[in-house]
Design goal:
By secondary structure, the chain is of the alpha+beta class. It contains 22 helices and 21 strands. The strands form seven sheets. Strands 11, 16, 17, 18, 19 and 20 form a six-stranded antiparallel beta sheet that branches. Strands 3-2-1-21 form a four-stranded mixed beta sheet. Helix 8 (about 255-280) packs across helix 21 (about 570-575), helix 10 (about 305-320) packs antiparallel against helix 11 and helix 13 (about 395-400) runs antiparallel to helix 15. The protein is globular.
Length: about 600
Protein backbone atom coordinates (compact mmCIF):
# COMPACT_ATOMS: atom_id res chain seq x y z
CA UNK A 1 0.00 0.00 0.00
CA UNK A 2 1.36 3.42 -1.00
CA UNK A 3 2.01 5.72 1.96
CA UNK A 4 2.19 9.39 1.03
CA UNK A 5 3.54 12.19 3.19
CA UNK A 6 0.28 14.15 3.10
CA UNK A 7 -1.70 13.17 6.21
CA UNK A 8 -5.18 12.07 5.33
CA UNK A 9 -7.65 9.22 5.57
CA UNK A 10 -10.34 8.49 3.01
CA UNK A 11 -13.53 6.60 3.76
CA UNK A 12 -15.79 5.51 0.91
CA UNK A 13 -19.42 5.14 1.87
CA UNK A 14 -22.85 5.22 0.30
CA UNK A 15 -24.76 5.73 3.53
CA UNK A 16 -23.65 9.06 4.94
CA UNK A 17 -24.77 12.48 3.90
CA UNK A 18 -22.24 14.92 2.49
CA UNK A 19 -23.04 17.39 5.27
CA UNK A 20 -22.25 14.98 8.10
CA UNK A 21 -19.00 13.99 6.45
CA UNK A 22 -17.94 17.59 6.08
CA UNK A 23 -18.52 18.54 9.68
CA UNK A 24 -16.91 15.44 11.11
CA UNK A 25 -14.01 15.74 8.73
CA UNK A 26 -13.32 19.19 10.08
CA UNK A 27 -13.78 18.17 13.69
CA UNK A 28 -11.54 15.15 13.33
CA UNK A 29 -8.94 16.42 10.83
CA UNK A 30 -10.01 13.66 8.45
CA UNK A 31 -10.52 13.56 4.75
CA UNK A 32 -13.93 11.96 4.28
CA UNK A 33 -15.33 11.26 0.86
CA UNK A 34 -18.71 10.22 -0.40
CA UNK A 35 -18.66 8.41 -3.70
CA UNK A 36 -18.99 11.63 -5.67
CA UNK A 37 -17.36 14.28 -3.52
CA UNK A 38 -14.03 14.85 -1.79
CA UNK A 39 -13.31 17.28 1.03
CA UNK A 40 -9.78 17.99 2.21
CA UNK A 41 -9.64 19.09 5.81
CA UNK A 42 -5.90 19.59 6.22
CA UNK A 43 -5.07 23.30 6.55
CA UNK A 44 -2.86 24.56 3.79
CA UNK A 45 -0.38 27.38 3.90
CA UNK A 46 -3.00 29.66 2.45
CA UNK A 47 -3.85 33.01 3.91
CA UNK A 48 -6.61 33.24 6.50
CA UNK A 49 -9.14 34.75 4.12
CA UNK A 50 -8.80 31.87 1.70
CA UNK A 51 -11.62 29.31 1.77
CA UNK A 52 -10.48 25.82 2.77
CA UNK A 53 -13.76 24.01 2.21
CA UNK A 54 -16.40 24.93 -0.34
CA UNK A 55 -19.58 26.36 1.16
CA UNK A 56 -18.13 26.10 4.66
CA UNK A 57 -18.74 28.65 7.39
CA UNK A 58 -15.82 27.32 9.45
CA UNK A 59 -12.98 29.82 9.35
CA UNK A 60 -9.30 29.06 8.86
CA UNK A 61 -8.31 29.71 12.48
CA UNK A 62 -10.77 27.10 13.78
CA UNK A 63 -9.64 24.45 11.32
CA UNK A 64 -5.99 25.21 11.97
CA UNK A 65 -6.49 24.97 15.73
CA UNK A 66 -8.33 21.64 15.39
CA UNK A 67 -5.61 20.26 13.15
CA UNK A 68 -2.82 21.33 15.49
CA UNK A 69 -4.71 19.87 18.45
CA UNK A 70 -5.43 16.49 16.90
CA UNK A 71 -2.36 15.94 14.77
CA UNK A 72 1.29 15.51 15.69
CA UNK A 73 0.44 13.67 18.92
CA UNK A 74 0.78 10.05 19.94
CA UNK A 75 -3.01 9.76 20.24
CA UNK A 76 -3.83 11.00 16.74
CA UNK A 77 -4.60 7.53 15.26
CA UNK A 78 -6.93 6.69 18.13
CA UNK A 79 -8.73 10.01 17.72
CA UNK A 80 -9.10 9.30 14.01
CA UNK A 81 -10.55 5.89 14.82
CA UNK A 82 -13.00 7.35 17.36
CA UNK A 83 -14.13 9.93 14.82
CA UNK A 84 -14.80 7.15 12.32
CA UNK A 85 -16.87 5.20 14.83
CA UNK A 86 -18.82 8.33 15.67
CA UNK A 87 -19.81 8.51 12.00
CA UNK A 88 -20.66 4.80 11.91
CA UNK A 89 -22.77 5.07 15.08
CA UNK A 90 -24.68 7.95 13.56
CA UNK A 91 -25.31 5.80 10.52
CA UNK A 92 -26.98 3.16 12.70
CA UNK A 93 -28.69 5.25 15.38
CA UNK A 94 -28.69 8.84 14.19
CA UNK A 95 -27.10 11.71 16.10
CA UNK A 96 -27.89 11.57 19.83
CA UNK A 97 -27.50 14.70 21.91
CA UNK A 98 -28.36 15.81 25.41
CA UNK A 99 -30.22 19.09 25.28
CA UNK A 100 -30.42 21.91 27.81
CA UNK A 101 -33.61 20.46 29.30
CA UNK A 102 -31.69 17.37 30.38
CA UNK A 103 -33.31 15.03 27.87
CA UNK A 104 -31.98 12.74 25.14
CA UNK A 105 -32.80 14.00 21.66
CA UNK A 106 -32.24 12.41 18.25
CA UNK A 107 -31.55 14.82 15.41
CA UNK A 108 -33.92 14.28 12.52
CA UNK A 109 -36.50 12.45 14.64
CA UNK A 110 -37.53 14.49 17.65
CA UNK A 111 -39.79 17.39 16.83
CA UNK A 112 -40.42 16.11 13.31
CA UNK A 113 -43.66 15.15 11.56
CA UNK A 114 -44.60 11.46 11.42
CA UNK A 115 -43.61 11.41 7.76
CA UNK A 116 -40.16 12.77 8.54
CA UNK A 117 -39.83 10.38 11.48
CA UNK A 118 -40.55 7.47 9.17
CA UNK A 119 -37.97 8.75 6.70
CA UNK A 120 -35.44 8.90 9.53
CA UNK A 121 -36.27 5.36 10.66
CA UNK A 122 -35.81 4.01 7.13
CA UNK A 123 -32.24 5.36 7.16
CA UNK A 124 -31.35 3.83 10.55
CA UNK A 125 -31.67 0.07 10.64
CA UNK A 126 -31.28 -0.36 14.41
CA UNK A 127 -34.90 0.72 14.85
CA UNK A 128 -36.41 -1.68 12.32
CA UNK A 129 -38.57 -4.63 13.32
CA UNK A 130 -37.36 -8.13 12.58
CA UNK A 131 -39.48 -10.66 10.73
CA UNK A 132 -39.10 -14.14 9.35
CA UNK A 133 -37.17 -14.49 6.12
CA UNK A 134 -39.13 -15.87 3.23
CA UNK A 135 -39.16 -19.68 3.32
CA UNK A 136 -36.93 -19.65 6.40
CA UNK A 137 -37.04 -19.97 10.17
CA UNK A 138 -34.49 -17.17 10.57
CA UNK A 139 -35.26 -13.52 11.23
CA UNK A 140 -34.10 -10.46 9.34
CA UNK A 141 -34.67 -6.70 9.48
CA UNK A 142 -37.69 -5.49 7.53
CA UNK A 143 -37.75 -1.96 6.16
CA UNK A 144 -40.76 -0.25 7.78
CA UNK A 145 -43.65 1.15 5.78
CA UNK A 146 -45.25 2.95 8.72
CA UNK A 147 -44.27 4.49 12.05
CA UNK A 148 -45.62 1.78 14.36
CA UNK A 149 -46.02 1.77 18.15
CA UNK A 150 -43.28 -0.86 18.31
CA UNK A 151 -40.81 1.34 16.46
CA UNK A 152 -41.69 4.30 18.68
CA UNK A 153 -41.19 2.07 21.74
CA UNK A 154 -37.80 1.00 20.38
CA UNK A 155 -36.73 4.64 19.99
CA UNK A 156 -37.80 5.22 23.61
CA UNK A 157 -35.86 2.13 24.69
CA UNK A 158 -32.64 3.41 23.12
CA UNK A 159 -33.16 6.81 24.74
CA UNK A 160 -33.74 5.09 28.08
CA UNK A 161 -30.53 3.08 27.75
CA UNK A 162 -28.54 6.18 26.79
CA UNK A 163 -30.00 8.31 29.58
CA UNK A 164 -29.31 5.69 32.24
CA UNK A 165 -25.71 5.41 31.10
CA UNK A 166 -25.34 9.20 31.03
CA UNK A 167 -26.71 9.63 34.54
CA UNK A 168 -24.70 6.69 35.91
CA UNK A 169 -21.47 8.01 34.39
CA UNK A 170 -22.07 11.59 35.50
CA UNK A 171 -22.96 10.50 39.04
CA UNK A 172 -19.87 8.30 39.28
CA UNK A 173 -17.74 11.32 38.39
CA UNK A 174 -19.58 13.56 40.85
CA UNK A 175 -19.78 11.15 43.79
CA UNK A 176 -16.20 11.56 44.97
CA UNK A 177 -14.60 13.13 48.02
CA UNK A 178 -13.36 16.03 45.88
CA UNK A 179 -16.88 17.45 45.78
CA UNK A 180 -17.83 16.72 49.38
CA UNK A 181 -17.22 18.35 52.72
CA UNK A 182 -17.52 16.13 55.77
CA UNK A 183 -19.61 13.57 53.88
CA UNK A 184 -21.96 16.14 52.30
CA UNK A 185 -22.03 16.60 48.54
CA UNK A 186 -21.95 20.11 47.06
CA UNK A 187 -23.11 20.24 43.47
CA UNK A 188 -21.51 23.64 43.02
CA UNK A 189 -18.07 22.09 43.63
CA UNK A 190 -18.71 19.60 40.86
CA UNK A 191 -19.99 22.30 38.49
CA UNK A 192 -16.95 24.45 39.18
CA UNK A 193 -14.60 21.58 38.38
CA UNK A 194 -16.25 21.18 34.96
CA UNK A 195 -16.21 24.92 34.37
CA UNK A 196 -12.51 24.98 35.21
CA UNK A 197 -12.04 22.42 32.42
CA UNK A 198 -13.77 24.90 30.07
CA UNK A 199 -17.16 23.17 29.89
CA UNK A 200 -20.23 25.41 29.80
CA UNK A 201 -22.60 25.19 32.76
CA UNK A 202 -25.94 26.10 31.24
CA UNK A 203 -27.46 29.30 32.60
CA UNK A 204 -24.58 30.00 34.98
CA UNK A 205 -22.38 32.94 34.10
CA UNK A 206 -20.60 33.53 37.40
CA UNK A 207 -19.80 30.07 38.71
CA UNK A 208 -17.75 31.45 41.61
CA UNK A 209 -20.55 33.60 42.95
CA UNK A 210 -20.60 32.96 46.72
CA UNK A 211 -24.38 32.65 46.77
CA UNK A 212 -24.04 29.32 44.94
CA UNK A 213 -22.25 27.72 47.88
CA UNK A 214 -25.26 27.08 50.11
CA UNK A 215 -28.70 28.35 49.23
CA UNK A 216 -28.97 29.24 45.53
CA UNK A 217 -31.56 27.06 43.81
CA UNK A 218 -29.36 26.53 40.73
CA UNK A 219 -27.45 23.85 42.64
CA UNK A 220 -28.26 21.26 45.28
CA UNK A 221 -25.75 21.67 48.07
CA UNK A 222 -25.02 19.97 51.39
CA UNK A 223 -26.61 16.66 50.47
CA UNK A 224 -25.85 13.41 52.27
CA UNK A 225 -25.62 10.71 49.61
CA UNK A 226 -27.09 7.88 51.67
CA UNK A 227 -28.71 4.68 50.41
CA UNK A 228 -31.71 6.62 49.09
CA UNK A 229 -29.50 7.80 46.23
CA UNK A 230 -28.50 5.01 43.87
CA UNK A 231 -27.67 4.38 40.23
CA UNK A 232 -30.13 1.50 40.33
CA UNK A 233 -32.85 4.16 40.26
CA UNK A 234 -31.63 7.19 38.31
CA UNK A 235 -34.67 9.20 39.45
CA UNK A 236 -33.08 9.26 42.90
CA UNK A 237 -30.22 11.22 41.30
CA UNK A 238 -32.03 13.50 38.85
CA UNK A 239 -35.61 13.37 40.15
CA UNK A 240 -37.22 14.71 43.29
CA UNK A 241 -38.38 11.52 44.98
CA UNK A 242 -35.43 10.98 47.31
CA UNK A 243 -35.46 11.95 50.96
CA UNK A 244 -34.19 15.50 50.49
CA UNK A 245 -36.70 16.32 47.75
CA UNK A 246 -34.31 17.78 45.17
CA UNK A 247 -32.08 16.40 42.42
CA UNK A 248 -28.56 15.52 43.43
CA UNK A 249 -27.51 16.63 39.94
CA UNK A 250 -29.39 19.08 37.74
CA UNK A 251 -28.80 17.23 34.50
CA UNK A 252 -29.75 20.17 32.28
CA UNK A 253 -26.72 22.12 33.55
CA UNK A 254 -24.20 19.72 32.06
CA UNK A 255 -25.23 19.12 28.44
CA UNK A 256 -21.92 20.54 27.15
CA UNK A 257 -19.84 18.09 29.19
CA UNK A 258 -22.22 15.20 28.49
CA UNK A 259 -22.19 15.73 24.73
CA UNK A 260 -18.42 16.10 24.53
CA UNK A 261 -17.17 13.57 27.05
CA UNK A 262 -19.85 11.05 28.00
CA UNK A 263 -22.03 10.47 24.94
CA UNK A 264 -19.20 9.48 22.55
CA UNK A 265 -18.20 6.52 24.75
CA UNK A 266 -21.82 5.47 25.23
CA UNK A 267 -22.52 5.56 21.49
CA UNK A 268 -19.34 3.58 20.83
CA UNK A 269 -20.53 0.94 23.33
CA UNK A 270 -23.93 0.95 21.65
CA UNK A 271 -22.18 0.31 18.35
CA UNK A 272 -20.49 -2.76 19.84
CA UNK A 273 -23.76 -3.82 21.48
CA UNK A 274 -25.52 -3.58 18.11
CA UNK A 275 -22.83 -5.78 16.55
CA UNK A 276 -23.32 -8.39 19.27
CA UNK A 277 -27.10 -8.12 18.93
CA UNK A 278 -26.97 -8.60 15.15
CA UNK A 279 -24.10 -11.07 14.78
CA UNK A 280 -23.53 -12.81 18.12
CA UNK A 281 -27.03 -12.97 19.57
CA UNK A 282 -26.42 -16.38 21.07
CA UNK A 283 -23.76 -14.75 23.24
CA UNK A 284 -26.60 -12.74 24.77
CA UNK A 285 -29.14 -15.53 25.04
CA UNK A 286 -26.65 -18.07 26.39
CA UNK A 287 -24.79 -15.80 28.78
CA UNK A 288 -25.37 -16.82 32.38
CA UNK A 289 -26.71 -13.43 33.46
CA UNK A 290 -28.70 -12.65 36.59
CA UNK A 291 -30.56 -9.67 37.96
CA UNK A 292 -30.12 -9.87 41.70
CA UNK A 293 -31.15 -7.94 44.78
CA UNK A 294 -29.06 -8.86 47.80
CA UNK A 295 -28.05 -7.55 51.20
CA UNK A 296 -24.90 -8.29 53.18
CA UNK A 297 -24.62 -7.77 56.93
CA UNK A 298 -21.08 -7.93 58.35
CA UNK A 299 -20.74 -8.82 62.04
CA UNK A 300 -18.23 -9.09 64.85
CA UNK A 301 -18.00 -11.84 67.44
CA UNK A 302 -19.99 -9.86 70.00
CA UNK A 303 -23.02 -9.24 67.79
CA UNK A 304 -23.32 -12.34 65.58
CA UNK A 305 -26.33 -13.66 67.49
CA UNK A 306 -28.01 -10.22 67.46
CA UNK A 307 -27.54 -9.97 63.69
CA UNK A 308 -28.94 -13.45 63.15
CA UNK A 309 -31.98 -12.63 65.29
CA UNK A 310 -32.58 -9.36 63.44
CA UNK A 311 -32.26 -10.99 60.01
CA UNK A 312 -34.56 -13.87 60.97
CA UNK A 313 -37.20 -11.40 62.14
CA UNK A 314 -36.88 -9.50 58.86
CA UNK A 315 -37.32 -12.72 56.87
CA UNK A 316 -40.43 -13.62 58.86
CA UNK A 317 -41.99 -10.15 58.60
CA UNK A 318 -40.98 -9.02 55.11
CA UNK A 319 -40.30 -12.15 53.06
CA UNK A 320 -42.58 -14.84 54.46
CA UNK A 321 -45.44 -12.33 54.29
CA UNK A 322 -44.45 -10.80 50.96
CA UNK A 323 -46.74 -10.79 47.94
CA UNK A 324 -46.01 -11.68 44.34
CA UNK A 325 -45.01 -8.66 42.29
CA UNK A 326 -44.04 -6.56 45.29
CA UNK A 327 -40.48 -5.41 45.88
CA UNK A 328 -38.92 -6.43 49.16
CA UNK A 329 -37.44 -3.40 50.92
CA UNK A 330 -34.03 -4.54 52.16
CA UNK A 331 -33.26 -1.00 53.32
CA UNK A 332 -35.54 -1.67 56.30
CA UNK A 333 -33.05 -4.30 57.48
CA UNK A 334 -30.03 -2.20 56.50
CA UNK A 335 -31.25 0.87 58.42
CA UNK A 336 -32.10 -1.24 61.44
CA UNK A 337 -28.59 -2.71 61.49
CA UNK A 338 -27.11 0.77 61.21
CA UNK A 339 -29.30 1.76 64.16
CA UNK A 340 -28.84 5.55 63.94
CA UNK A 341 -31.34 6.44 66.64
CA UNK A 342 -32.81 9.56 65.07
CA UNK A 343 -33.37 7.69 61.79
CA UNK A 344 -35.51 5.04 63.50
CA UNK A 345 -38.37 7.49 63.99
CA UNK A 346 -40.65 9.20 61.48
CA UNK A 347 -42.83 12.06 62.71
CA UNK A 348 -42.13 11.04 66.29
CA UNK A 349 -43.14 7.40 65.90
CA UNK A 350 -41.05 4.29 65.33
CA UNK A 351 -40.70 3.53 61.63
CA UNK A 352 -40.30 0.06 60.10
CA UNK A 353 -36.58 -0.15 60.91
CA UNK A 354 -37.10 1.00 64.50
CA UNK A 355 -39.92 -1.47 65.02
CA UNK A 356 -37.84 -4.27 63.53
CA UNK A 357 -35.09 -3.54 66.05
CA UNK A 358 -37.48 -3.48 68.99
CA UNK A 359 -39.33 -6.60 67.87
CA UNK A 360 -35.98 -8.38 67.50
CA UNK A 361 -35.18 -7.76 71.16
CA UNK A 362 -32.58 -5.01 70.84
CA UNK A 363 -32.26 -2.95 74.01
CA UNK A 364 -31.37 0.66 74.79
CA UNK A 365 -27.73 0.75 75.88
CA UNK A 366 -26.09 2.17 79.00
CA UNK A 367 -22.83 3.94 78.12
CA UNK A 368 -19.87 3.07 80.35
CA UNK A 369 -16.20 3.92 80.69
CA UNK A 370 -14.03 1.36 82.42
CA UNK A 371 -17.25 -0.57 83.21
CA UNK A 372 -18.65 2.44 85.06
CA UNK A 373 -21.84 4.12 83.76
CA UNK A 374 -21.06 7.63 82.59
CA UNK A 375 -23.02 10.61 83.87
CA UNK A 376 -22.35 12.83 80.86
CA UNK A 377 -20.78 12.59 77.40
CA UNK A 378 -17.78 14.72 76.45
CA UNK A 379 -20.05 16.98 74.39
CA UNK A 380 -21.93 17.94 77.55
CA UNK A 381 -25.03 15.84 76.85
CA UNK A 382 -26.66 13.33 79.19
CA UNK A 383 -26.95 9.66 78.17
CA UNK A 384 -30.69 10.19 77.75
CA UNK A 385 -29.86 12.77 75.07
CA UNK A 386 -27.78 10.22 73.14
CA UNK A 387 -29.90 7.05 73.24
CA UNK A 388 -28.83 4.03 71.20
CA UNK A 389 -29.55 0.34 70.73
CA UNK A 390 -26.69 -1.94 71.72
CA UNK A 391 -24.86 -4.03 69.11
CA UNK A 392 -25.95 -1.86 66.22
CA UNK A 393 -23.39 0.14 64.25
CA UNK A 394 -24.54 3.35 65.91
CA UNK A 395 -24.54 1.63 69.30
CA UNK A 396 -20.89 0.64 68.84
CA UNK A 397 -20.10 4.24 67.87
CA UNK A 398 -21.75 5.68 70.99
CA UNK A 399 -20.03 3.21 73.30
CA UNK A 400 -16.73 4.24 71.75
CA UNK A 401 -17.68 7.92 72.16
CA UNK A 402 -18.30 7.28 75.86
CA UNK A 403 -14.57 6.64 76.33
CA UNK A 404 -13.89 10.36 75.81
CA UNK A 405 -14.13 12.68 78.79
CA UNK A 406 -13.44 16.38 79.30
CA UNK A 407 -10.71 15.48 81.79
CA UNK A 408 -7.32 15.02 80.04
CA UNK A 409 -6.29 12.57 82.76
CA UNK A 410 -9.24 10.20 82.30
CA UNK A 411 -10.05 10.51 78.60
CA UNK A 412 -9.06 7.79 76.13
CA UNK A 413 -6.60 9.85 74.08
CA UNK A 414 -6.51 7.42 71.17
CA UNK A 415 -10.31 7.45 70.81
CA UNK A 416 -10.41 11.22 71.20
CA UNK A 417 -7.82 11.61 68.45
CA UNK A 418 -9.95 9.42 66.17
CA UNK A 419 -13.08 11.51 66.80
CA UNK A 420 -11.28 14.83 66.33
CA UNK A 421 -8.96 13.78 63.46
CA UNK A 422 -5.96 14.51 65.69
CA UNK A 423 -7.43 17.81 66.88
CA UNK A 424 -8.58 19.08 63.48
CA UNK A 425 -12.12 19.70 64.72
CA UNK A 426 -14.28 19.33 67.82
CA UNK A 427 -15.48 16.01 69.21
CA UNK A 428 -19.07 17.09 68.44
CA UNK A 429 -18.16 17.54 64.78
CA UNK A 430 -16.35 14.23 64.82
CA UNK A 431 -19.41 12.47 66.22
CA UNK A 432 -21.57 13.94 63.46
CA UNK A 433 -19.09 12.88 60.77
CA UNK A 434 -18.87 9.33 62.09
CA UNK A 435 -22.66 9.11 62.39
CA UNK A 436 -22.95 10.15 58.76
CA UNK A 437 -20.30 7.56 57.86
CA UNK A 438 -22.75 4.96 59.15
CA UNK A 439 -25.66 6.50 57.25
CA UNK A 440 -23.92 6.46 53.87
CA UNK A 441 -22.80 2.82 54.12
CA UNK A 442 -24.75 0.76 51.59
CA UNK A 443 -25.41 -2.88 52.40
CA UNK A 444 -27.62 -3.62 49.39
CA UNK A 445 -26.99 -4.36 45.71
CA UNK A 446 -29.61 -4.36 42.95
CA UNK A 447 -28.11 -4.93 39.50
CA UNK A 448 -27.52 -7.13 36.48
CA UNK A 449 -24.33 -9.17 36.33
CA UNK A 450 -22.72 -12.23 34.81
CA UNK A 451 -20.37 -14.81 36.29
CA UNK A 452 -17.28 -13.09 34.89
CA UNK A 453 -17.87 -9.47 35.86
CA UNK A 454 -20.85 -9.29 38.20
CA UNK A 455 -21.30 -9.12 41.98
CA UNK A 456 -17.66 -9.12 43.02
CA UNK A 457 -18.66 -8.54 46.65
CA UNK A 458 -20.29 -11.98 46.87
CA UNK A 459 -18.14 -14.86 48.17
CA UNK A 460 -16.90 -17.17 45.44
CA UNK A 461 -18.93 -20.19 46.52
CA UNK A 462 -22.11 -18.08 46.63
CA UNK A 463 -21.37 -16.77 43.11
CA UNK A 464 -20.74 -20.31 41.93
CA UNK A 465 -24.17 -21.39 43.13
CA UNK A 466 -25.85 -18.24 41.80
CA UNK A 467 -24.52 -18.80 38.29
CA UNK A 468 -25.12 -22.52 38.21
CA UNK A 469 -27.13 -23.52 35.14
CA UNK A 470 -29.91 -25.04 37.27
CA UNK A 471 -30.67 -21.67 38.82
CA UNK A 472 -31.71 -20.43 35.38
CA UNK A 473 -33.73 -23.55 34.56
CA UNK A 474 -35.49 -23.66 37.93
CA UNK A 475 -36.20 -19.93 37.90
CA UNK A 476 -37.98 -20.32 34.57
CA UNK A 477 -39.67 -23.60 35.56
CA UNK A 478 -40.68 -23.11 39.23
CA UNK A 479 -42.44 -26.47 39.31
CA UNK A 480 -39.02 -28.11 39.13
CA UNK A 481 -37.82 -26.50 42.36
CA UNK A 482 -37.35 -29.13 45.07
CA UNK A 483 -35.22 -29.79 48.12
CA UNK A 484 -32.14 -30.33 45.96
CA UNK A 485 -32.50 -27.08 44.03
CA UNK A 486 -30.27 -24.06 44.57
CA UNK A 487 -33.37 -21.85 44.67
CA UNK A 488 -36.38 -21.67 46.91
CA UNK A 489 -39.60 -19.88 45.97
CA UNK A 490 -41.80 -17.93 48.36
CA UNK A 491 -44.79 -15.87 47.29
CA UNK A 492 -43.44 -15.28 43.80
CA UNK A 493 -39.94 -14.40 45.02
CA UNK A 494 -36.88 -16.59 44.38
CA UNK A 495 -33.96 -16.87 46.79
CA UNK A 496 -30.60 -18.58 46.67
CA UNK A 497 -30.47 -21.29 49.32
CA UNK A 498 -27.73 -22.28 51.72
CA UNK A 499 -25.77 -25.34 50.65
CA UNK A 500 -26.77 -27.08 53.92
CA UNK A 501 -29.72 -25.93 56.02
CA UNK A 502 -30.21 -27.06 59.59
CA UNK A 503 -34.00 -26.81 59.57
CA UNK A 504 -37.01 -26.23 57.33
CA UNK A 505 -37.35 -22.65 58.53
CA UNK A 506 -37.19 -20.14 55.66
CA UNK A 507 -34.73 -17.92 57.55
CA UNK A 508 -32.42 -20.89 58.02
CA UNK A 509 -32.68 -21.81 54.35
CA UNK A 510 -32.09 -18.43 52.64
CA UNK A 511 -29.81 -16.64 55.12
CA UNK A 512 -26.33 -17.56 53.91
CA UNK A 513 -23.41 -17.05 56.30
CA UNK A 514 -19.89 -16.80 54.93
CA UNK A 515 -17.22 -16.18 57.53
CA UNK A 516 -18.62 -13.28 59.60
CA UNK A 517 -21.07 -11.92 57.01
CA UNK A 518 -24.73 -12.83 56.43
CA UNK A 519 -26.28 -12.65 52.93
CA UNK A 520 -29.81 -12.78 51.55
CA UNK A 521 -29.68 -13.18 47.77
CA UNK A 522 -32.91 -12.69 45.82
CA UNK A 523 -32.86 -13.62 42.13
CA UNK A 524 -35.07 -11.23 40.15
CA UNK A 525 -34.28 -12.43 36.60
CA UNK A 526 -32.37 -15.38 35.17
CA UNK A 527 -33.04 -15.12 31.42
CA UNK A 528 -33.08 -18.38 29.51
CA UNK A 529 -32.27 -18.79 25.84
CA UNK A 530 -35.93 -19.57 25.17
CA UNK A 531 -37.08 -16.35 26.82
CA UNK A 532 -34.65 -14.30 24.76
CA UNK A 533 -35.24 -16.04 21.43
CA UNK A 534 -36.55 -13.55 18.90
CA UNK A 535 -40.05 -14.63 17.96
CA UNK A 536 -39.81 -17.57 20.36
CA UNK A 537 -42.94 -19.24 21.67
CA UNK A 538 -41.80 -18.87 25.30
CA UNK A 539 -40.03 -15.52 24.91
CA UNK A 540 -40.55 -12.46 27.05
CA UNK A 541 -43.32 -10.14 25.91
CA UNK A 542 -41.88 -7.92 23.19
CA UNK A 543 -44.78 -5.60 22.42
CA UNK A 544 -44.95 -1.84 22.67
CA UNK A 545 -47.33 -2.20 25.62
CA UNK A 546 -44.67 -4.09 27.59
CA UNK A 547 -41.95 -1.63 26.66
CA UNK A 548 -40.29 -4.37 24.57
CA UNK A 549 -39.30 -6.39 27.65
CA UNK A 550 -37.43 -9.05 25.70
CA UNK A 551 -35.42 -6.52 23.74
CA UNK A 552 -34.71 -4.38 26.79
CA UNK A 553 -33.29 -7.34 28.69
CA UNK A 554 -31.31 -8.53 25.65
CA UNK A 555 -29.84 -5.07 25.08
CA UNK A 556 -29.09 -4.62 28.79
CA UNK A 557 -27.08 -7.84 28.71
CA UNK A 558 -25.59 -6.87 25.34
CA UNK A 559 -24.46 -3.49 26.66
CA UNK A 560 -22.69 -5.18 29.56
CA UNK A 561 -20.94 -7.48 27.10
CA UNK A 562 -20.05 -4.49 24.92
CA UNK A 563 -18.50 -2.67 27.89
CA UNK A 564 -15.90 -5.42 28.20
CA UNK A 565 -13.05 -6.27 25.86
CA UNK A 566 -14.25 -9.57 24.40
CA UNK A 567 -16.10 -8.22 21.36
CA UNK A 568 -14.59 -4.76 21.01
CA UNK A 569 -11.92 -5.53 18.42
CA UNK A 570 -14.15 -7.98 16.54
CA UNK A 571 -16.98 -5.45 16.37
CA UNK A 572 -14.74 -2.59 15.25
CA UNK A 573 -13.11 -4.80 12.62
CA UNK A 574 -16.57 -5.72 11.35
CA UNK A 575 -17.55 -2.08 10.97
CA UNK A 576 -14.23 -1.05 9.46
CA UNK A 577 -14.58 -3.75 6.82
CA UNK A 578 -17.70 -1.93 5.63
CA UNK A 579 -15.56 1.12 4.77
CA UNK A 580 -13.16 1.45 1.89
CA UNK A 581 -10.21 3.08 3.61
CA UNK A 582 -7.17 4.59 1.93
CA UNK A 583 -4.38 5.21 4.43
CA UNK A 584 -2.10 8.10 3.52
CA UNK A 585 -0.39 8.57 6.84
CA UNK A 586 2.16 6.08 8.12
CA UNK A 587 1.33 6.42 11.83
CA UNK A 588 -2.38 5.90 11.24
CA UNK A 589 -1.72 2.98 8.91
CA UNK A 590 0.55 1.35 11.51
CA UNK A 591 -2.04 1.87 14.25
CA UNK A 592 -4.89 0.27 12.28
CA UNK A 593 -2.72 -2.62 11.10
CA UNK A 594 -1.59 -3.37 14.65
CA UNK A 595 -4.98 -2.89 16.28
CA UNK A 596 -7.14 -4.55 13.61
CA UNK A 597 -4.88 -7.06 11.85
CA UNK A 598 -7.81 -8.92 10.30
CA UNK A 599 -8.39 -5.93 8.03
CA UNK A 600 -5.07 -6.59 6.30
CA UNK A 601 -5.20 -10.35 5.76
CA UNK A 602 -5.78 -10.10 2.01
Amino acid sequence: MLIRPLWRLAIMSNNKSKKVFTLLAIASSLLLASCNDTIYSRPSDATKDQSLISNSSVDHNTVEWLYDTLHDTSTTPEKVRNAMFKILAQGLFGEFTFDTTGEVKITGYDGETDANKLSFIKLHKAYWDQGLKENSTKYEYKEPTALTDTISARIDLFKKIVKKQVVTTLYSKANTDSFKYRNYFYEVKFARSLSKDLYTINGVTDIYNESYDETNSVFTNKVLLDNSVTTEDIDSIIGTNNNFGAPVLHLALYSDYINKQILPDIMQNLLIEQYVYDNQYTAISRTQTRRVNYISIATENKNVSDARRLISKFVNDYITNSTSGSQIDYDVLADAWKGVYGDLYTNGSLNKSGKLLQDSGFKIGTPTKDDTPISMYADGKLPSEHPYYTNTKYGDLMESFAKITLNPKTTDSSTESTFTSSGSYSIETGLNIKTDDIRITDYTTLDWGNKDTGFSSLPSDVKTRLFDYTVMTDFNSPSNIDSNSYLTAINGHYFLKRSVAQSDELSDSIVIKDSSTFYIVEVLEAPSQAKLTIGGENAYDNTAASGLKQEEIARTIGYQIASGSTYKTTAFTHYLESCEINYNDQSIYNYFKTTYPDLFKN
